Amino acid sequence: xxxxxxxxxxxxxxxxxxxxxxxxxxxxxxxxxxxxxxxxxxxxxxxxxxxxxxxxxxxxxxxxxxxxxxxxxxxxxxxxxxxxxxxxxxxxxxxxxxxxxxxxxxxxxxxxxxxxxxxxxxxxxxxxxxxxxxxxxxxxxxxxxxxxxxxxxxxxxxxxxxxxxxxxxxxxxxxxxxxxxxxxxxxxxxxxxxxxxxxxxxxxxxxxxxxxxxxxxxxxxxxxxxxxxxxxxxxxxxxxxxxxxxxxxxxxxxxxxxxxxxxxxxxxxxxxxxxxxxxxxxxxxxxxxxxxxxxxxxxxxxxxxxxxxxxxxxxxxxxxxxxxxxxxxxxxxxxxxxxxx
Length: 341
Fold this sequence. Notes:
By secondary structure, the chain is of the alpha/beta class.
């Protein structure tokens, strides 16, 4: 700690790092003490733009050796997340990790085990868990407003092309991974979060309509949950439309469709959809994401010595489902059982 505050090091300075920095700066219990990246000039640019007074380290090794650093904010390209997360945990640093945290099951297991072995706190940036609509839906589900959930559908439709700042690495298998790992993981995580259950089987298909990616850009998957619910998810990178995050939750006593509610239990005599006046996950702009709430939650977890509901141990299961979907695609749509061996 520095001056009684937890020291934060931001490593990797893409667009999301600026949003992270803004949220860290609002929390009274932390101070940004370091910013670093593959290119020092990029790190220096963030420092200057955000008006920070901190060190600009030239390597990740220097970050981990800095005794002022209590929390490492890992926000570089996808393919370095796991390696850096393991190194940070082994150095005794708490970890905020951008998604995806791993691109293979070997990485997924290694990161989970390293964090557990080190005993540090962690949170993975499935930031939509703090979106107000998500919080509304979780509350309604917990209250039994639509009865027993039997169908879950969440879609991530986000046309991503050369305009994207990280396009050169994101479009590759080595660094981007796959459509489900790069972006569709948000939808998969939402399904697990709403179902409050784990997936036991997936079947998936894909295509590459525009040929812009090294991997298939468009994916659809059917899922079975342990408790009997079924579901569907899709991720479309070739979509020609505004960013859309569809949510459909069907229960024995009603249905939730995005911010619309139909409930025989709560609203007997209902003649039309009731609309929840809340903030929807309807923008891909990082400034729209609830990073303030996520980071405040993580700081509280560290200070109160408790685990986050969105820690690396939990995110392990979201990534496992994404990797199972990719495996099913590679096998021509054959069902894949979870947990993966």
